[in-house]
Amino acid sequence: MFRLDLLKKVIWIMVGKQGRQWRSMCKGLVLGTLLTSCMILLYCLSSLQEHGTFPEVPVPYSCAHRPANSPQTTNGSDPRPGAPLCSPKVDVMFMKTHKTASSTLINILFRFGEKHRLKFAFPSSRNDFLYPAFFQRSQVKDFKPGMCFNIVCNHMRFDAAEVAKLLPADTAYVTILRDPAELFESSFHYFGRTAPLTWKIPGEDKLREFLREPHYYYDPEGFNAFYLKNLLFFDLGQDNGLEPGDPRVDQGIRAIADRFHLVMLAEHFEESLILLKDALCWETEDLLFFRLNERKGSTVSKLEPELRAKALEWNAVDWKLYQHFNATFWRKVDAYGRQRMAEDVEELRRRNAEMAALCIEGGHAVEATRIQEKDMLPWQPIGEKSIMGYNLKKNVDKKHRKVCRKMLMPELQYLTEMGVNLWITKLWGHVRDVINW
């Protein structure tokens, strides 16, 4: 009798395990099918927006609304006697690349634009300009030929000629890059589940397995595959499938260098902001920030030297791009002055620390599950809640409460507050919530 009972228990456990495995497999199949179908549906809905041709109406040289005779001032970053006079630039094109601290910079631009009552060129119905399609003026909300826009800063796939038809000639073009190995790790984590080619990768450490034999797993025609190879070059409107020795890579890098006045580096974000302040004649107050969309440390894969080398080899074109602009970045720092740069960075850090003490409950970011207000919860990748956010202090004085809230506000909530209808993005958010079941 004892042996019979024991046998029944063993069979029950085995059946239970198999049942759980079958349920897991079925759930994965259902979710995979749902994910693919919904992505195709959302893409089709997005593509239904009108893309008509427009008459070529010249855009004014400048869309700055300040009086033409407004007095110039010395650049706030250059208090030296005899420093040249300048006026703050308000016409700015920020090419928002993926996973490069660009969400933090876009928050700075939102606040600057609101402060000076500038006109943004926003997308319609979603938070990007029909990415990964190339940018077109018709994707701009309420666009009409000849309209004046000061700032464009949402995700797009860059098209220099089309952007130039939207913005005034005095526009400052800015973008930001990140070390390609670190960017690849971040992109693989954040977007990997939306690229079906990753679903067939076995094992727990999919990143390591992919880099072991990337040509076996990668399909350049696969849905969302562009997220996983030379993403920077792709975002900037170039062909991410080229080999680094292809002359079109050097041509692309030269085109980017000719178009952009400043290429920032995520690894040197504060130094980048000082160069931005100098280029645009802004004040330190305009650059105060809290880091947004950061991942909690436990979800970041540590790239030991061998894995880092493989990531750079796989993203060799991005690595070539990054090395070029890393060199130009430090030449700009040298021209600015290393000692002066160190002093200005220290001042920026001091002001940021003051704002953190004033605005942030606990003084630091917290995990998504600990964020108290839904309006402060950042967008999360499928299947987890790895993006951190903030809690606003409850006793912030009335004078600072508004600016504190804006500095802490995630991108989608800020766009909604500025009047952008994000129905497609929100619909995808509901689908994502179902998938996270």
List the main descriptive attributes of the protein structure presented here:
mainly alpha; single chain; 6 strands; two-stranded antiparallel sheet; four-stranded parallel β-sheet; 5% strand; 437 residues
What is the H/E order?
HEEEHEHEHHHHHEHHHHHHH
What share of residues are in beta strands?
under 5%
Approximate shape: globular
Biggest sheet strand order reads: 4-3-5-6
Low-confidence stretches: 6-30, 44-50
By DSSP, the count of extended strands is: 6
Task: Please explain how this structure is put together.
With 437 residues, the protein is mainly alpha-helical. It has 15 helices and 6 strands. It has helices at 2-47, 102-115, 160-164, 180-191, 206-212, 214-217, 231-235, 247-259, 269-280, 305-314, 316-336, 338-359, 398-408, 411-417, 423-435; strands at residues 73-74, 85-86, 92-95, 151-152, 172-177, 262-265. Strands 4-3-5-6 form a 4-stranded parallel sheet. A two-stranded antiparallel ribbon has the order 1-2. α4 crosses α10. The radius of gyration is 24 Å and the shape is globular. The two termini are 43 Å apart.
Summarize this structure briefly.
With 437 residues, the chain is mainly alpha-helical. Helices cover 46% and strands 5% of the residues.
Q: Strands, helices and their partners?
A:
Blueprint: H1 2-47, E1 73-74, E2 85-86, E3 92-95, H2 102-115, E4 151-152, H3 160-164, E5 172-177, H4 180-191, H5 206-212, H6 214-217, H7 231-235, H8 247-259, E6 262-265, H9 269-280, H10 305-314, H11 316-336, H12 338-359, H13 398-408, H14 411-417, H15 423-435
Helix pairs in contact: 1-15, 4-10, 10-11
